[in-house]
Here is the input.
Amino acid sequence: MILVEEGQSPLILCLPNSGTDVPKPVSARFNATGRLQADLSWRLEKLFGFSADLGLTVLKSSISRYVIDVDRDPATPLAAAFDPLAALCPATTLDGKRIYQDGEEPGPTEIEQRVLLFHAPYHKALRQQIDRLMRKHGAVVFVECQSMRSQIKGVTGKELPELSIGSAEGAACDTDLRNLFVGTLSGMDDLNIGVDSQTKGGFILNAFGRPERGVHGLTLLFAQRAYLRHESPPFEPDKVRTTRLQTVLSDCFSSLIDWTEEAGRERKRQSAEPPARAAEEEAIAASVPDEDPEPVSEPYDEEAAAEEEQVSSEAAEIEPPQTEPGAGSGAAVKQETSPDQKPITLLVAE
Here is the structure.
């Protein structure tokens, strides 16, 4: 099930692997290791008790990542089920221990069903929230948060930094945004931070991070020692560590919101500029005279008019108008013969 808390700020908090729910038909096939679910982002939501105060939108899947990891590509091949770093529907823990009873791993049809039931709805919900907040703010930042044990054989190599930041090596967000976030966290002297090292981001970050369109994404990976008393069941939060992280994360997220709101205003200004420039160019064009202006009427000259009328009268006496009997109104062409018998064509007005 997808849990959505809608806020009005331009920041979305994604918790894809904090859920613990396992459908009964699946849990019945787990072995003892699988039932422990040691690789979830245990109690991570406890770090974000300030989300309502900052107006964050929170998007959480209630389904365990042992059922399906919604931060993996849905096109991941079935053979990857035993690869702890790539599995869509894991068959092992992160350190390679089997989580199903012998022969009970999901097949292609079941995996397809899990994608339709749990994976696709999460991504659809995230898209809907991004679209909603883009219409409101013009820019959005989503922060995808996960946690894992501080040291996992075959995965970490050495102890994880307390907080690892991923930005797809700068491709998923504006570098100024990433630097702002890292700079704010760097004020905590006792907090070890890694940037695009232990994690560069998963499928969600790469699928939705489009900074050129105003959608910025970051991944935060917490070592569980940063906020838990023990990295084993019952995964009890440490109140002192949790409070410390809540304070610094609240400040960081506030900075992200301020940055994103300004970025959204700038995008809206830029999108409004082309019509304004077009109107300005049209006004300038209207003020430029045509290349072939209309002739200007000469002032009325009474003497010239009288002289022209006298010339017309003299011409009328020399060649009086000719009409044919019974001719209608209008103009007619009539043939006359001159004294030397040459035909003359006259245009006669009737």
In short: The radius of gyration is 41 Å. The chain has a mean pLDDT of 83.
